[in-house]
Specification:
This protein has 421 residues and is of the alpha/beta class. It is 35% helix and 15% strand. It has ten helices and 16 strands. Helix 8 runs parallel beside helix 10. The N and C termini lie far apart (64 Å).
């Protein structure tokens, strides 16, 4: 505190405060005057305002129903907890975003996050848990570099866009064998295991357990014998119980069903690490990362912290069995509405493999009607229903944090739109 802070405070009030006040008129929040000594900020004052008529206002306030495929909706109570800790984490005088990742406060956060994830999933002791930067797409390269240091063959089962990307990337480092594909059905199903053309001495077999874009999900874990099964679980991570011992590697980005963007969680069997390709980048070396508790360099601290809050919440909810039951109930509401619309709404996916997380659908009336539907849905407060640019149509991503009432609100809107059009 001193003259420097006083001068900064004066400059802030003269330049920034008027602009922030103007912004507050659209956000419904007014900022009180900022303290110039130290780091304290006065409490924000709510401006009384009527909800916009065009927005489907939720019981929790003026938050939209967010059906984004990722980054995606987070549990409101987790956001509230993070808000409480944002400026002063547990009385430390620091935000999680400011504290050293080597300090005891963040080390405790990291240790709790891993312990809670192990408890939540039931991860055996002979599996390492890695919190890594780069999202799932970085693992498309890291996996072959760790599991096939001298090349060899890996088998890929293609059921959608993300499996295709993993297959293409692996081909840079080894022979990627297309063991099965549902491309001929526009990725609307999963090839029967009996038709897979697997390589006897493959380094691994790769699947995408849930295709975010196409809405296709594996319902059973395929048996690959002694060949390690590798699964990209980005969009159904923690949506149901996971039998970890059936896999060699489980990986996925967290931005869909766990936390903010910026991190992948890799669960890898110990015997599969320590034999990296000679040219493997340091940051992709699983053994190095495991030996350093995912902290060879500065980890994605805020994402680790927020993900840890989600792990605790899911444990309190009753674990992944309870989460799966909740997700099945939500998905049934939406699929029943689609199937009961007499072709007005259409889901193209084989019913045996319909995703509990991502529900794509089209409107039988054609592209113009779809555009009208999406425009009116957005105006009514339903966020990010537009389908992926590669397939079009609509898509509702109903991850763990999407409550049942949000799905029901969407179904009600769909019924009203059908009646009016």
């Amino acid at each position: 505190p001193g003259a420097g802070y006083q001068a900064w405070g004066t400059l802030f009030d003269r330049i920034c405060t008027p602009k922030m006040a103007a912004l507050s008129m659209t956000s419904g929040v007014a900022l009180g005057s900022r303290a110039v000594a130290g780091r304290k900020v006065t409490a924000r004052k709510a401006i009384a305002s009527k909800p916009r008529a065009s927005v489907a206002v939720r019981a929790s306030g003026d938050r939209k129903w967010n059906f984004s495929a990722g980054p995606a909706v987070l549990p409101l109570d987790v956001l509230e907890d993070a808000k409480e800790d944002l400026i002063n984490y547990k009385g430390t005088g620091m935000s999680v975003m400011e504290m050293s990742h080597r300090g005891k406060d963040f080390m405790n956060i990291a240790e709790e996050a891993e312990a809670d994830l192990r408890e939540l999933i039931g991860i055996p002791a002979n599996y390492k848990v890695l919190f890594l930067q780069g999202g799932a797409s970085s693992q498309f390269s890291a996996i072959p570099m760790n599991l096939a240091p001298e090349g060899g063959v890996a088998d890929f089962i293609l059921t959608g866009a993300w499996g295709k990307k993993a297959y293409a990337e692996a081909g840079k480092y080894m022979t990627a064998n297309l063991a099965a594909s549902s491309a001929d059905s526009n990725f609307s199903t999963i090839p029967d295991v009996s038709d897979w053309k697997l390589t006897e001495d493959a380094k691994f077999v790769h699947i995408c357990s849930n295709e975010t874009i196409g809405g296709v999900e594996f319902k059973e874990v395929p048996d690959t014998g002694d060949v390690p099964l590798v699964a990209d679980m980005s969009s159904n991570y923690l949506s149901k119980p996971i039998d970890v011992e059936k896999y060699g590697i489980i990986y996925g980005g967290v931005q869909k069903n766990i936390g903010p963007a910026g991190m992948a969680i890799v669960i890898v069997r110990e015997d599969l690490i320590g034999k990296t390709h000679p040219l493997c980048p340091t940051m992709f070396d699983y053994k190095l990362m495991a030996d350093n508790d995912s902290m060879y360099n500065t980890p994605p601290c805020w994402t680790m912290y927020t993900s840890g809050l989600v792990f605790k919440k899911l444990i309190k909810m009753g674990g992944l069995e309870a989460v799966e039951k909740m997700n099945e109930e939500k998905a049934k509401i939406l699929y029943d509405a689609i199937d009961g619309s007499d072709g007005y709404y259409v889901n193209p996916v084989d019913k045996k493999y319909r995703s509990l997380m991502n529900v794509p659908f089209t409107l039988g009336g054609g592209e113009d009607l779809e555009k009208k539907f999406l425009k009116e849905a957005a105006a009514a407060g339903f966020e990010s229903l537009k389908g992926h640019r590669s397939v079009g149509g609509a898509r509702a991503s109903i991850y763990n944090a999407m409550p049942k009432e949000g799905v029901q609100a969407l179904v009600d809107f769909m019924a009203d739109f059908k009646a009016a059009n």
